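Bug: token stream looks shifted between consecutive jobs. Job 1:
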Amino acid sequence: MAIFLDKLGIMSEVSLLRAIMDGIPPLKDKRLIIKDLIFEKVKVRLYQPKTSTTGQRRGVLYFHGGVGRFGSIRKSSRAPLSRYDHTETLLFPCRYRLAPEFPYPTQFHDCLTATIHFMKTAQDYGVDPARIIVCGDSSGGTLTAAVAQALVNRKDVPKLRAQILIYPFLQAADFNLPSYQQNAKIPVLIRERTLILGLKYLNKDISAVNILLKGSHISEERRQKYQKWLSADNIPHEFKMRGYTPPGPPAPYSEEIYKLAKPFLEPLFSPLLCEDNVIAQLPETFILTCEYDVLRDDGLLYKKRLEDHGIKVTLCHLEEGFHGTIFLAAYSKVVTFQSGIKGLEKITKFLRLM
């Protein structure tokens, strides 16, 4: 519908999607104190349990999805976890500024700024600085991974306790992984649409979609470097049994296409392509993947990279899940899928161990 109205010139796609997101009514929960705060000029919303506690709580910074252009941006800003833990967790959804009004990578810098501010002031909110977690879904998972990577060498803030990545987008080098093939036409995030959204986020020409899908932005040198991280051989066999054909020879490299797509390959946009010395310092990680999601293999490959460097990873794979199922489980009063409920329960269980 959004694409159709955009093509007719009635309403831009991003305007309609924002209107839909803003139409979600604000969370009202008698068990929570809800406040709007500012962390170094970045808007955040606090969900604080009303119940008293004898010790310090854990704190979770949450980054919503929406490919940097739409999402929970106004009074409806909230996070899935706010409905599931009302005792030990203070939740801070970050209301980062959106593109195109605020071009990429403003969204990353807002999330990083809010995280650093909170890490330095956590005790003011009764939060244990050693129990701070970053969390995000979809492109919010990208932001979460990028923020965690940006913090590993900082000495002025405590170490993150964990990161939670909910069906994250983690790389833009290979759009022919098994999950991209198997789920190419499965809503809500079809293969071509994934790349179009990324190009729009970076304010790039979307006419190059087809040639980018073929991998013409990757030189032979980069292909060899990325192979050890992105090879389908790193994905367990059970995930390749449904409609996967190993791709043929790579498409010819185009320097022009590479220049267009260069930001795609930077760790801010593709955290899976970060160097080993950073990966080795990341915190304990929870990754949620869905079987019917083009981004499934991004999560599986990141899991392997982290585990190869000794990082503890908890994987929650939803065999009946699809992209957005957690969002529906948390927000929808009409349609809720069991996979989303299961995912939220697994996330909450992980959080309670932190």
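Job 2, same session, no restart:
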Amino acid sequence: MNPRLRHWREAATLLLAAGTPGRPPRTPLGPFDYELLLLRRSSRSGFMPGAHVFPGGLAEPADFSAEWLGLLPASAHCGLGAVKPPPPGGSRAPLFATDRENLGSQLPGEVAFRICALRETFEEAGILLLVPGRGPAPPLPAERLPPAAELEEWRRRVREDASCFLRLCRHLGCAPNIWALHEWSNWLTPVGRAGRGGRRYDTAFYLCCLQERPPHVSQDDQEVTDVLWSSPPEAIERFKSQEIWFPPPQFYEFCRLCNFSSLGELQKFSSARALEGCERWMPVTLSAADGFIQLLPGDELYPEDPDYTGEKKMVMSTDKKVEDLMKEGGIFHRIVIKNINNLAVYVNIQAKYKHINPLMMNCDNSDHNSRL
């Protein structure tokens, strides 16, 4: 974590995909052989109450503890590959580029944020993703996990004290499976979407693919009140029908995951681009006469100097309708918001960092390929 940050806090989240072979198709996109884990936030939460989100949360000092070096490989980046230099004109996202040694941590940010995502997944959903020994190694088999009651006690301890996650790993003679997590994206909460007390987050999104659902999945009944496994198109259908709600970044990522109906394809793609990095995206909201547009970097209307801190009090608004703005435009990277459950993604720019653009899933139940 970075104690010098004033306007937001650092966090990590996990897109956890698990195989579900043989399930019948439920959407026009056909069968998907995997689902993703969604957790419903408590209605008492100070940020996105009641929303379905991927597991994750704030980075804690314990995630950056030098004691982790005793459980992880002594090689550079603890066995993780080095991320390639950014393309011309690009830069490494500040979340990852920050020199952690200057902040008093010997643990690289790429390692600490993965530990954070794994710890939070254990706290919120009871899922423990470990490898025996120091790793990298095949995942720890379910039969080697402690009994459910003991695991639940450890979960309670970790929830109360993040440093207990390291103690749990040491107790089991295991390491957190940081090597299964592939860097996927980086989202910064927009100024206008800050939670209670002005909470904003610079969040690392990681993707992890499992062959099957892990055992012992359950909500903690504190931060999380429900657990849902859903394929990307099913999640979007549930969103459209107002069965569930999730924030625009999750909607965008589900649309991007709709490119992959096979867990194997998703694993192959995420592994192939694992060391390409990503850029930080802070949506900038444009208020229109009949809705909102969240502009993302690369869109023709995205400001050259966005108001990252909120100190400029920048407001973008127009009397035009969303439809007119879409007809006038030509270079899109945006999320159109008509109401809380009526979103659409429009992208026709080239994806950077060897990533892939989302399918443009419209709320009129049609979809279009946006990879132009």
